[in-house]
Design a protein that fits this description.
Blueprint: H1 13-19, H2 22-38, H3 45-69, H4 71-75, H5 92-114, H6 116-137, H7 144-148, H8 150-164, H9 169-192, H10 194-200, H11 205-208, H12 211-234, H13 240-261, H14 272-301
Helix pairs in contact: 2-3, 2-8, 2-14, 3-5, 3-6, 3-8, 5-6, 6-8, 8-9, 9-12, 9-14, 12-13, 13-14
The structure holds protoporphyrin IX containing FE (HEM) and farnesyl diphosphate (FPP).
Amino acid sequence: MSATASLQLPTDWRDFYSLTKPRVMSLVIFTGLCGLLAAPGTIHPVLGFTAILCIAVGAGGAAALNQWWEADLDAGMKRTAARPLPAGRMDRTSARDFGVGLSVASVLVMGLAVGWLAGLLLAVSIVYYAVVYTIWLKPRTPQNIVIGGGAGAFPPLIGWVAVTGHITAMPLLLFAIIFMWTPPHFWALAMFVKSDYAKVGIPMMPVVAGEQSTRRQILIYAALLVPVALAPWLIGGTGAIYGISALVLSLAFLALSVKVGLRRTGAADRMKPEKRLFAFSVVYLFTLFAALVVDHQASLQGWLQ
Ligand code: HEM
Ligand SMILES: CC(C)=CCC/C(C)=C/CC/C(C)=C/COP(=O)(O)OP(=O)(O)O
């Protein structure tokens, strides 16, 4: 029997709110905001606020569609079993309609109020997460999050384009940073929730390729992230505040990844290095994007001259 077909408990607004994965999406929204604030040029504050609201609403809509599609899988995993659908507090149709409604509204408002390139990029990222990653790649290949990670890399590009109206090297580099960051971010977590994914048959890397191979691949992506994170500085798109922050943060991220990448066992210490790397991955991206904005403000105000 479907895990979601049992007795329906009352739904309240908190269930709709949690369907948007607010904690995860906080960093998605923050990177979008930083893309907007670090872009050259200006945007009217009301339009800037609208653009960020559209990224938040679109990301929330995509997250709702992800849970609509995965309700039965979520029911089988300890980490996700208490979500509104598997816990029986919401029916699937409501989740689907909520997800479609938020997604369509966010793209239309972005297109009409801010610009159609930003609207198009938002639409692509929603479809990328809800369809390409969730429906197509996730159940099929252990490379799901490498390719699917592209979805989460869009927000700074969208924020930037909301201001400038076109795509240049800098926002593409911001995209590339999140793209390279996603595999270590997610595989570090997947190492300690591996049994959950194995139970429901999702071919995440540690399940399919094993822990040793996943550790090596975490290390490879973390090493690639160092030059990619430095690239905005190296091409002259930022100043030294960003450059030095990127260097320090990326070397710290690499050092934690080396600890994970070079070890042979994991069970005895309950995956402490992997847990540390996962926690730091979130701090890393928040701080790196904050440094980008501080650097941009510093150059506008002439603080370092
Ligand atoms: C395909 C790519 C990604 C996958 C599969 C993934 C997966 C996950 C999972 C399973 C969690 C555990 C939290 C939970 O169960 O709610 C998590 C946490 C988190 N993710 Fe990701 N993630 C990805 C990309 C991203 C991106 C692009 C961002 C932001 C730019 C992000 C930001 C976060 C944050 C902030 C947390 C911590 C949330 C908390 O404190 O509870 N993730 N991620
Ligand atoms: C603007 C826009 C549409 C942004 C989308 C951003 C995006 C793709 C973020 C990915 C983060 C995320 C919630 C991954 C969860 O993976 P999962 O869904 O496999 O995790 P689960 O097992 O917790 O459901």
